[in-house]
Amino acid sequence: MTTHPLLRSKKLFTVSLPAILLVAAAWVPTPGLAQANREATPAVGISDQMARTQNAHPNELPRGQFIMPEEGDIIGQHYSITVSDHAETLIDIARRHNIGYEEIRMANPDVSLWVPGKGTEVVIPAQYILPPVPREGVVINLSELRLYYYPDDNQEIVETYPVSVGREEFATPVGVTRTTIKVENPAWAPPASMRREAAERGDPPPEIVPPGPQNPLGEHAILLDMPSYLIHGTNRPDGVGMRVSRGCIRMYPEDIESMYERLPSGTKVNLVDIPFKAGWAEDGTLLVQSFPQLEENMGNFEPLLDALRRVAEKAPD
Predict the structure, then answer these.
(1) What single string gives the DSSP state of each residue in 258-302?
(2) Where in the sequence numbering do the catalytic residues fall?
(3) How many Cβ atoms sit within 10 Å of the Cβ of residue 312?
(4) Which of 20, 216, 304, 311 is the most exposed place for a label (fewest CB within 10 A)?
């Protein structure tokens, strides 16, 4: 096997192309390798990453907020907690720590999702590489199942939250749009495709679902300048961090409530699909992060090559 030319060109390091996926999984413990069943290979090197503090501990700032790095692309840090309540699930822990379903599952492959057990150590994968796109408005990385928000009125802060996106047959589109109308306690009109499917099952839904606990939009909705697409809450928060929607972006109720109050109408929203990210820490360390590719894009290596190009462009001579 030959060394990838992008790595040779900058004399960054020498590694064969298949090996770089393993390096990515080792450097940033979760999410890990892209596989057809979206299962991640357990990563190594977690303790080293936890010791690398790139930013303030999440608890020192409001939920989801991090200080923008003066140099580099890394925010947050990995850390671990010990389960103190035998009734607590990994999903409970994920929500409390601003992590989605897939993130917590892949970071803790050997921990029971439903009964982790009192005294069990749980890794919180809270270190992020900022997506390699303009740092403005809202950026949603579909493969990462995560939203980034760069407030115009406070450029020292970046916010990030787990999200759900459209499942394969209702894939969330990539592209640039803007927020339009914000609606509190929205009513929901099930789309025609859903009504047809439900009717075929003999359980047709109502034409309009009023605000309340049965409304899948939750209590807050932000419309996008793309017909039928919204950023909204949910009445089923356990699904945040999965591909479960019909194309909309779902957030934890507390996260959409926080953003709803502060996100101006007309804010740019950049929907991207970047399964491989590389970035530099403030101390010059290169970090690489990989996420399971969307099923419909499985086997496409162009995103990996794009990440390698970005590494080569930024590498010191």
Answers:
(1) HHHHH--TT-EEEEE--SEEEEE-TTS-EEEEE-PPPGGGTT--H
(2) 232, 248
(3) 18
(4) 216
- Map residue 91 onto helix, strand or coil: helix
79-125 and 134-273 share one CATH topology?
no
pLDDT reading at 4 higher than 90: no
For residue 221, the Cα-to-chain-centroid distance in whole angstroms is 19
Query: How far is 119 from 46, CA to CA, in rounded Å?
Result: 19
Closest CA to 282 of 113, 52, 10: 52
Length of the chain: 317
Specify the pTM: 0.79
The predicted pLDDT at position 316 comes to 63
**pLDDT of 36:** 27
Cβ neighbors of 210 (< 8 A, separation 6 or more) are 187
Report whether CATH 3.20.20.70 matches the domain 79-125. no
Place of tokens 């990440």: 307
Q: Considering all CA atoms of the chain, what is the largest pairwise distance in Å, rounded to the nearest integer?
A: 65
Which helix or strand (DSSP H or E) is residue 160 part of?
strand 157-166
The CATH H-level (homologous superfamily) assignment of domain 134-273 is: L,D-transpeptidase catalytic domain-like (2.40.440.10)
Query: What residue ranges do the domains of the chain occupy?
Result: 1-76+128-132+274-317, 79-125, 134-273
109 Cβ contact partners less than 8 Å away, ≥ 6 residues apart: 40, 42
Which of 50-64, 142-156, 301-315 has the highest average model confidence (pLDDT)?
A: 142-156
Q: 88 and 116 in contact (C-beta within 8 Å)?
A: yes
In whole angstroms, what is the distance from residue 28 CA to residue 128 CA?
A: 9
